[in-house]
Amino acid sequence: MRSESRLLVTDTTMRDAHQSLLATRMRTYDMERIAPDYARGLPQLLSVECWGGATFDVAMRFLSEDPWERLDGLRARMPNLLTQMLIRGANAVGYANYPDNAVRHFIGEAARGIDIFRIFDCFNWVENMRVAIDAVAESGKLAEGAICYTGDVLDPARDGFDLGYYCDVARQLDAAGCHIIAIKDMAGLLTPASVRALIAALRDVTDKPIHLHTHDTSGAAAATLIAAAEVGVDAVDAAMDSLSGLTSQPCLGSVVHALRHGPRATQLDAGVIARCSGYWDAVRRQYAAFEADLRSGASEVYRHEMPGGQFTNLKEQARAVGLEGRWPQVAEAYREANLLFGDIIKVTPSSKVVGDMALAMVSQGVSARDIENGNRAFAFPASVKAMMRGDLGQPHRGFPPAIQELVLGDAASVDTRRPSARLAPADLDKLRGEAAQILGRKPGEADLASFIMYPDVFSAFVKSGDRFGPVARLPTPCYFYGMRCGDEIVVDLDVGKRLHIVLHAIGDRNDAGERKLFFELNGQPRTMTVTETQAEVAAVTTLLADDRDPRQIAAPMPGMISMVAVAPGSRVAAGATLFSIEAMKMESAITAPVAGVINRILVEQGRLVEPKQLLCVIADDE
Questions:
Q1: % of residues, the chain, pLDDT over 90
Q2: Residue 500's domain spans which residues?
Q3: What is the CATH number for 522?
Q4: Backbone phi, psi, residue 142, to 5°
Q5: Contacts from 573-577 at CB under 8 Å and sequence distance 24+?
Q6: CATH number, domain at 600?
Q7: pTM (predicted TM-score)
């Protein structure tokens, strides 16, 4: 890489582009159909990022797909291209810390199909990345250690994230054995001027190749890539034109044209890029239901610093909890929450914590100043408590002690050790047995890796496959939206196993909720009966709490009661947990503002509640 004069390029379309634009919903079916064109027409690519990050669990959770089959399929169709994945250090492809041997096992299995592992830690804590770096090196693959970028290296007010800080992280990654150093600008905050200064500074402390990743949320990221190329960055990330821009990566075709005829020309074929972009444009239309409501660049990102992959997701979370019309307040609360936590790096999973906090602040009508001054009671999300305890690791300046005390109430619960070092090694033989119970057969190593990362999701995925079969083979419009009368589809189950299906008619629903479907299967008429499930909604009277009475406990936000910790007659102290409420992956505790005895409980676990809905009443303890 260092000997190349051309700018090397990684295509992110099959991973980060759709993760940022389409809620990670891109199916293997659509990737496999274009992969041979990449192999034939774009052999000059440095790599194709096609795995890892959120794609792993989303494949099983929402697409009924085995992520390992995706990896095998793409590897087989692009044998001449390097494949690349994103791995969250000690979090692997999950959202929690895993035992060291579990991370090593996962990487060992992934190395059968992945060539470049981009490894990062949400606080740039290299100590938390070492197990993954060593495992990649031992597998004979390339370890790309990522420096997560935030702030502005040219802003003297952000002295915690100056050039000296980033150079120190680069030195540590170099010493840890990384083959490549990545700059992971997940929010797209780098400007042409700041990237010139950063790359020049990094080049003084490492001779390893430097690979730049950014997002185009601001609309100015292409200029940043061109500036980086001019000062000697070795490689950059870009996305195919029709899946570029906004919260995705800069436009690949535009970067190629901007550099042609110059010393950093990429040597990529612009005609092939245009043809591939045309394919992705047609595919993207099939995912319209997952498009974010973002139609232009957003310079506000320089203020709130949300990662590109979170920007649209947090908007959706805000909509789901009834805050869609208050997005400016949510964005400002995100900024306030970050500063409240001590100005931290925001990338999965720390960015989710900041987002949880922002939504909770706006939902509960509380500002950062209210929290700092203790003016208002505030239910801290469970993710905030976990981060303050040290469950995600340690930022280089630590967390503000005053905030830790507010959140935890007990400094003794803070643990500054490497999170995975606190965990006992995973009992792989025991876990194999548990996976075998779910599968009904001996699990392969890939099955085991999936089970370790996401036991509940894996179990649901297996049950879904047993019930519905290989739905990953269905064409995308059919999978998401179903067939209409007259539709004809072709399904390739395996080599030489092809199904031609034509839906002719759908019968009326009978009293049992059943319908008959009339269709052809490989030319033969067939009929089958399916049962529709319908939810009957009864009218429910909702009582609202009197916000002037501290003994009437109200729901702070819309969501689902995930846990009821008390029962009628229970004695509670002030500050005791009464309920947990969950909304869009955010879980918060609802605590007692006063001591007393639980008089009435008006909700049960699993109940959906609205803001200010009365949950329980606390009587005096006489």
A1: 75
A2: 483-531
A3: 3.10.600.10
A4: -90, 125
A5: 575/409
A6: 2.40.50.100
A7: 0.86
